[in-house]
Amino acid sequence: MDPGFGVTSLVTAPLCWAAHPTPRVPQGKVPASSILASAPSDRNLDAWRESGCRTTHCNLEVLQESTLVFLATKPHVLPGVLQEIRPAVGPHHIVVSLVAGVTLQTLQRLLPAGTKVLRLMPNLPCVVQAGAMVFARGSGAGDGEAALLKNLLSSCGLCEEVPESYINIHTGLSGSGVAYVYLFAEALAEGAVKMGMPSGLASRIAAQTLLGAAKVMLETGEHPAKLRGDVCTPGGTTIHALHQLEKGALRATVMNAVEAATNRACDMAED
Questions:
Q1: 87 among the known binding-site residues?
Q2: Strand-pair partners of 8
Q3: What is the pLDDT of residues 63-85, one digit of tens each?
Q4: 40 is in an annotated binding site
Q5: What sign has the CA pseudo-torsion 62, 68, 72, 76?
Q6: Gap between the Cα atoms of 27 and 173, Å rounded
């Protein structure tokens, strides 16, 4: 018998779907009817129902019916959720936390000894099955649990197991990095608008340019510096444009942004 899959959440929508009105179920992995979502109000559950998932207002019901349980709450709410569900957590459960700033050590301390715990950090493009996710396993989770999670989430994009120390870096690189890309896309399109192109067309071309560049990076495995060099020709348009970006310290500014977001993620873990 296939294990049941459940999602438990106590506030708003689960974090990995909070910025999108409709939660996406990984295609071909788990039937929507096998997902049980818990939240404190009907408003938080409407989107899940529209996707065909079952819903409840009782977190303990999720534990009773499910083997794989995702915790997706605000950080300050999580301790209360863990206290509530702790008596129902057994050796057959796999508990996956998506909660920012809460370490595996904390999760293991607040759950029964030996609980199979993993910590996952997704990003916004998971909603269109193009996300970048990393996860780390606690001491009670083995290769089987890691393989299960990676296989399940592969439908949502890239999913890699990493040391827990990389999770905050991933937040600065990819979780927050999506916003950096949107800012760059906006500037790219506005540059074209300045030169006379209609805004809608400029935005579509900017988005496709970013998508295509990313796909080349992933499919070739080449370092971005090498690919950047491939686009440049002596005395051409690209090298003149890159000179302007270098004068604006784009590279250093983006590196500083990743550092700032990573440090903030570390600070949140210590609060």
A1: no
A2: 38, 71
A3: 988 899 999 988 888 999 999 99
A4: no
A5: positive
A6: 26
Q: How many CA atoms lie within 13 A of 153 on its CB side?
A: 27
Answer yes or no: is 106 a known binding residue: no
Rounded Cα distance between 127 and 77, Å, is: 24
Is 249 part of any known ligand binding site?
no
Asked if residue 9 has pLDDT above 80, the reply is: no
CA 242 – CA 232 distance, rounded (Å): 9
59 is in an annotated binding site: yes
CA distance 261 to 177: 9
Coil/strand/helix, residue 97: strand
Q: Is the pLDDT of residue 187 over 90?
A: yes
**Whole-number Å distance between alpha carbons of 160 and 146:** 10
pTM of the model: 0.84
Structure-token pair, residue 76: 């300050």
C-beta of residue 37 within 8 angstroms of C-beta of residue 45 = yes
Q: Take residue 263 and report the two structure tokens written for it.
A: 């440090």
Instruction: Provide the residue type at 242 as one letter.
Output: L
Domains recognised in the chain with CATH numbers: 5-163 (3.40.50.720), 177-270 (1.10.3730.10)
